[in-house]
Design goal:
Helix content is 5%, strand content 40%. The protein contains 1 helix and 9 strands. Strands 1, 2, 3, 4 and 9 form a 5-stranded antiparallel beta sheet that branches. 15% of the residues are buried.
């Protein structure tokens, strides 16, 4: 049975950057179980979602996704300077360039933001996804479809 839009699927995958660096995998580490999602429902990045359509259980596939089919291009409007006074007082002197902070959204969710610059009065946060602008390669194996 070939995967169609709306099927529930389980996929084993390994995601790498162009230089071969593994950024995520379902086969070991923290995520050592197949990824489950509804094919074609927009729960995954576009290129990954589209790649499983038509696959058969047991089939393996390698795909290369350009940024527009993955996490998009970095957006300059997602890099923002904030006064340190926006941080809890006990954290203001602990923030360093390269750290990731959780930024509270109006709906109560947290979004990771990378600290790209710190000075005496402010910090600059990058809210772009860490993989924005990157070409991603995936090895996929369809484990289950129903």
């Amino acid at each position: 049975m070939a995967v169609e839009k709306g099927n529930k699927v389980k996929v084993d995958y390994t995601g790498t950057l162009e230089d071969g660096t593994v950024f995520d995998t379902s086969t070991h580490g923290d995520h050592s179980h197949p990824l489950e999602f509804e094919a074609g429902a927009g729960q995954m990045i576009k290129g990954f979602d589209e790649a499983v359509i038509g696959m058969e259980v047991g089939q393996e596939k390698e795909i290369t996704l350009q940024p527009d089919d993955a996490y998009g291009q970095p957006r300059s409007d997602l890099v923002q300077k904030l006064p340190k006074t926006q941080l809890p007082e006990d954290k203001r002197d602990q923030v360093k360039e390269g750290m990731t902070l959780g930024v509270g959204l109006p709906d109560g969710q947290q979004m990771p933001a990378r600290v790209v610059a710190v000075d005496a009065e402010s910090l600059t946060l990058d809210l772009n996804h860490p993989l924005a602008g990157k070409v991603l390669k995936f090895k996929l194996k369809l484990v289950e479809c129903n």
